[in-house]
């Protein structure tokens, strides 16, 4: 191991092997499935799998493993598995069906996804994702997912950002909902069949690692407060992303990193934590009491024109009274070739720049107005209001409901918001983490989207992992079982359980003065300011200091009322925020160490002469996989620091695709 | 009530009467709270967040209520607001904004009330009966990997559209809360219609409806008397005719010997 770098981390050995078969990508997945050991159907019911999370990745996996005959225990913190946040996805799901005969193929979907990820994803996994994409559509249609159809009764699809073919299947603006209901119904069918045991309103608070293998979890029944031990032969985390570290994001209120972070602290490496997707077309913050942000489909940028006033003194005026000559259509000005259709990361960063210059619009949020206009006046003039209504009606209605303004008359105001996290627990080709027996799927893992995710790819990955990839790879692991029975009083189990009980007690005993939300908001502010759309070395170092101070204060001064043996939503939130306070530091360290700009990660020090992101493939063509560093003190104790994390690099090897620098001018 | 100094003339002072109940066995009661300087741009749940922060500061335990996505799609939130499921607008509680109220209003907030939705605490209820209705047959039996090519069975657009419209149900339970009989026929009808309109749903169509209705009654939901209150309260606008479809399918199934 090296000495401390930047005073905050050390570097360990490289990751030598991702376990992908050593054959060309086109035949790799077939070979892996062929080589993976089989489990006799009669033996499957003796093998148990815990799955945390019931979104597309977790719900699909639970249903599929249940159908195969394994004994599955499925967990979600919501009151029903149908509420997982996959449900909120709007746009669609990509699949290389080539129904339009427009030149699409597995290879093209693979290529688009790697390029969209700014060449920071792993070729082998992305190829497999493209390969199984077509099967997903077949499976969902068979389950009764009501995709959009043409008059002939066949499936419709449309094109989406960043690609030139039409491969996105959709169900109006509710594709995520419909896919999730499909997976949910398949899951409930297995609950009825007795293969899946469902634990709703349960939250995983610790991972049990016995004899070097993941063997179970400690969960809290959120209704009774009971701390429970659940043991199994393998554990799957499908617990989603960690965008809520920013407090304000498009994630659900309960979305959290706790399952992932607990596993990270037990030895699972965290991959690329700083890769965050910030989506440009969200409804702006309206005031200090805002609890979450709402996304509107980026399809709006096809017809809407984005602008801010040229003069600061115009920012408070009714936008309709500002003459053409005094408006700055800044994307059209800076990027004449792509105009308003530049990729998400660029559109977001420029909106921030305009507001930082004092030319933002809408209400003051802190010291600045945080909004830019998205104006449909030209489109309405050109196409007529009816045509605009047909295309975007549901989005306009949503905007009107939230803001109370009529977007057909007044330009909409938009601002970027945290939307998705490409980083997650590091996994190998089998989706297995660095802890044997711990598998990670969907947004919770890091593997498929590199430094930027393309639209309509999150749903594809969740279902690919859940229906087709994990069930095939986990059987190779389970074939080695059943593993020796772990008893509830084994030292590792008792230790995990005691840790949860003590942490809960400690949180309630602080009896300080500040609410959990006030800490969460302050953390979010730090993350957004220094680890958001633009990052600098000085800013990140400052953020690390601020987060450490805030974490220490949290453990000294948080105020949580109520008890541990009943429904206690403040206590739930406190546990999640405590983990975000640690994750935030790791994100800043990762962003600090990656002194290049790529995808959603923009380091101000690494840009071209005209202000565009500049990658450094010679230095950073790798996945940053972080190992938790044990500090001298227990990090949950007041005034402590986490130990310096250890960086392990996984070199990215491009054999099927040539590396290029992106350009949109 | 005393008028506060408002940070914006559009802001409101409100009186809230909120259901507090420690647990399933507690009798529960309405408690009165005052909130001040509420912006019309806040959502109803953000207004409750503000109240909870106040309560926390005073050392009073915050009010428990459910919400997750806060964009109207997950179905986790749901409150009876002055007697209306999800409040005065046709939307979910999380998408209801304070501009629907006016300065000085008194608002009563209660949980969904139905035998099949027992109260857990304050405004939080247990809706797992809905999951059990789905377990009884609200699915198409197809194992992963055994699906035919997606375009093998065309679906007429009209049927596909009606299936989609029914599938928009978010399972929030407003239909049950609004119904004088606490019936879940709209919820169930939406599922039966969604799957029954599609060719993939045909093999299990008759068994499905019998099994789901039987589970519905077993859970303690009431019968339907066609008041239409469910459809009025539904934030997704599921039309009442899904109940006709359900009844029709049930009759056909019974004729076939169920």
Folded structure, characterized:
The complex is a heterodimer of chains A (665) and B (258). Chain A is of the alpha+beta class. Among the domains of chain A are: 140 residues, Alpha-Beta Complex (Flavocytochrome C3, Chain A, domain 1), CATH 3.90.700; 161 residues, Fumarate reductase/succinate dehydrogenase flavoprotein-like, C-terminal domain (Methane Monooxygenase Hydroxylase, Chain G, domain 1), CATH 1.20.58. Chain A is built from 17 helices and 22 strands. Chain A has a five-stranded mixed β-sheet. In chain A, strand 15 and strand 16 form a beta hairpin. Chain A is globular. The model of chain A has no long low-confidence stretch (mean pLDDT 94). Chain B has 258 residues and is of the alpha+beta class. Chain B has two domains: 109 residues, Roll (Ubiquitin-like (UB roll)), CATH 3.10.20.30; 128 residues, Alpha-helical ferredoxin (Fumarate Reductase Iron-sulfur Protein, Chain B, domain 2). In chain B, 33% of the residues lie in helices and 13% in strands. Chain B has eight helices and seven strands. At the A-B interface, helix 3, helix 5, helix 6, helix 11 and helix 12 of A face helix 1, helix 2 and helix 3 of B.
List keywords for this structure.
heterodimer; A: 665 residues; alpha+beta; Flavocytochrome C3, Chain A, domain 1; Methane Monooxygenase Hydroxylase, Chain G, domain 1; five-stranded parallel beta sheet; 36% helix; B: 258 residues; Ubiquitin-like (UB roll); Fumarate Reductase Iron-sulfur Protein, Chain B, domain 2; five-stranded mixed beta sheet; two-stranded antiparallel ribbon; 7 strands
